Amino acid sequence: MKTPVDIAVTGAAGQISYSLLFRLAAGDLLGPDQPIVLRLLEITPALEVLKGVVMELHDCAFPLLHKVVITDDPKVAFDNVDYAFLIGAKPRRHGMLRSDLLSENAEIFIVQGRALNEAASRNVKVLVTGNPANTNAYLAISQAPDLAPECFAAMTMLDHTRAVSQLAQKCGVLTKDIKNITVWGNHSCMQYPDLHHARVKGQEALSLVEHDWFVNEFLPTVQHRGTEVIKTRGQSSAGSAANAVIKHMSTWINGTDDGDWVSMAVPSDGSYGIEPGLVFSFPVTVTNGQYNIVKGLDLNEFSLERLRQNQAELIEERQMVRHLL
Ligand code: NAX
Questions:
Q1: Tell me: domain 157-318, CATH 3.90.110.10, correct?
Q2: Distance CA 92, CA 89 (A)
Q3: Is the CB of residue 313 below 6 angstroms from any atom belonging to ligand 1?
Q4: Which of 265, 16, 321 is nearest to 127 (CA)?
């Protein structure tokens, strides 16, 4: 029997977690012979609801679920964890300014960055999903000097899988036939889902679809998909977000397929002119549990302009929370 692995999930009583926790306990991330301990973090008023979720987890009698810890203390949640899913964040309330939303969430990720620095395994993989995900990840990294910045990433995998699915539907192929799509930049409506290097069954995607479709349908559809889901379902994406959380982390652990890459928001190393340290979504490959930004892709002026817009938005977000550091 393998030693159980500790996994932290924040915002554990929220809707994404309601899908994610059952998949983690079923072995969807670490496989059918790896026992786990779930360490679940919530704010104090949500602990009662979280107890109900834990009752359901126990009711499933998952053989791999060795223990569940629930807490409102980040240091307890992150104690010696190998994987941390930072999902909990405050939603935007009616009439709230973007700068207020950024500040309120910044405080959460500053506290959690410090707690990770103190308590987590030195090889922890931290995936930030709570919005604004890129800036929250940037803040957590800034508070965790004893952890390598490469221990952190923010999630643009849902944008990536949305883009893959839209292109597959347009071309009448399966999603497995699509390779080398990139979502660049910020996990916001500014994001740039890029088809210039994408391939469909080995053929260049942009030779198979009209340029007008790429610019005027594909781009806005992927950029605004989250809003469309809220309009249609009445609630924000949860099942698809949990799926993207699992896909991001399992790719980070197991590696990318030969000849393909995925999109992850990671600290920039200066590639493509993006300011070093800014958490920016790039095409990445993963080997031996380490992500590497794909270098040297040719970007035309259309693409470069969109990268610059994303960089400007992320610098503005950082500016709005800098006083808290
Ligand atoms: P919910 O509002 O259902 O759940 C959030 C949970 O976080 C709540 O239970 C709340 O009590 C908890 N929470 C708040 N502050 C906390 C703190 N300091 N410590 C621990 N827990 C805390 O939201 P849900 O639909 O689950 O979405 C969670 C976050 O993911 C949101 O910020 C959302 O915007 C973001 N998303 C990010 C996506 C991405 O691709 N990066 C896609 C999906 C999602 O929209």
A1: yes
A2: 10
A3: no
A4: 265
Is 0.90 exceeded by the ipTM?
Answer: yes
With 80 as the cut, is the pLDDT of residue 98 above it? no
Q: Each residue of 204-260: pLDDT tens digit?
A: 999 999 999 999 999 999 999 999 999 999 999 999 999 999 999 999 999 999 999
Banded model confidence at residue 92, pLDDT cuts 50, 70, 90: confident
DSSP bridge partners of 126 = 84, 152
CB of 13 within 6 A of ligand 1: the answer is yes
Q: Looking at the structure, give the CATH architecture of the domain made up of residues 5-154.
A: 3-Layer(aba) Sandwich (3.40)
Extents of the domains making up the chain? 5-154, 157-318
* Ligand 1: centre distance to CA 243 (Å): 15
List residues bridging with 199 in a β-sheet: 179, 204
Give dist(CA 319, CA 162) in Å, integer: 30
